[in-house]
Amino acid sequence: MKRFAAISCSDDEKWGKSEGIVKRYEDFYRIKDEEWTGFHATRGNVPTIEDLEKFDAFLISGSISSANDNKEWILKLKEFIQALVSLDKAKKRPKLVGICFGHQLIGSTLGGQVGPNPSKDFILHAEEIVGNEAASKVKGLEGLFDNGPLRLLESHGECLTELPDGAINLASSSSCKQELVKFSDNILGLQSHPDMLKEEVQNLILPAISKKFNWSDEKIKEIEASVNMKLHPDKMNEAIKKFIQN
């Protein structure tokens, strides 16, 4: 039986605390009857080097924190990522997928740069993700963009602005160049949120963010219109499942 681990980097009540994030990942990325374990990173519960031999894949969630924060749990998580990267390439290595903050954390750990969005504004809308030829060559992602761009939800104040050495960009959007990145054969990162529902953007995120950034009524209406367009999270989520399964 395969063993997968969800590393929750949020303990916010609106998501059901850290346990809610773990359950969300299990619900979205369960393949069949594999065993799932949750790690609650913000509470200091971070996987160790010993855990690398116990799991077939790890998924790192989003967070309100920054990959540049000097928090103990973030530093421990970076140490864990470094340990995973350092495993013998001749042997089977666990897969690692980072979503939003997880994506940025992986990039930062490996030597890339994370900083404010190029627009200098918070990104909260549905974005068209345009894949390139390199994406079709990644095991598990074949055919992902065959029918054109994927429209996915975005919610982030920062993004990966510079790739680490050896990483390959697989897809971009108008607001973020590094939307989907292959960091190595066993490590994938994505800036978008295929793990999020449009109702959550509308009801849990938009009211607070629009107030914080003093967005105009016109901008709020544009965001609402974008998230109500046809979205393609299922395609991306299926690709993630294929990637961690192989």
From TrEMBL:
CDD domains registered for this protein in UniProt: GATase1_1
Record's Gene Ontology CC terms? cytosol
In terms of InterPro entries, this protein maps to: ChyE-like (IPR044992), Class_I_gatase-like (IPR029062), GATASE (IPR017926)
User: Which domain of life does the protein's organism represent?
Assistant: Eukaryota
Q: Which Pfam families match?
A: GATase
Q: Which PANTHER family does this UniProt record tie to the protein?
A: GLUTAMINE AMIDOTRANSFERASE YLR126C-RELATED
Q: What is this protein called?
A: Gamma-glutamyl peptidase 5-like
